[in-house]
Sequence to fold (114 residues):
Amino acid sequence: MTDATEKALRLRLGQELKRARTARGLTQNDVAERVGTEPETISRFERGATLPSLTRLLALAEALDEPVGMLLGAASPRGMDEFEDVRNSLAGLPARDRKLAMAVVRAVVDVWAK
Fold:
């Protein structure tokens, strides 16, 4: 893994951890307490300064009630992981809303592809 790829992974995972934390109305202190670490450690993860160990990532996923795959998929620089993340997001919508969301996605892609 190149340094640039690792940096991108750290930043994207940090953004995803913060998104999951704030979506649940938790503070960094709350998450740190649930995981058994210091708030500064959570801050370093969210800023992308460092990557959590696999054990710590599992604890974070549990503390945030978020599937590890969702955290990693959203953070992954691999295109297929990004597609899977979008697919999972759309799958949770009712059929009518899913069709509308797909129409919007197709329209955006058509504009950007030109």
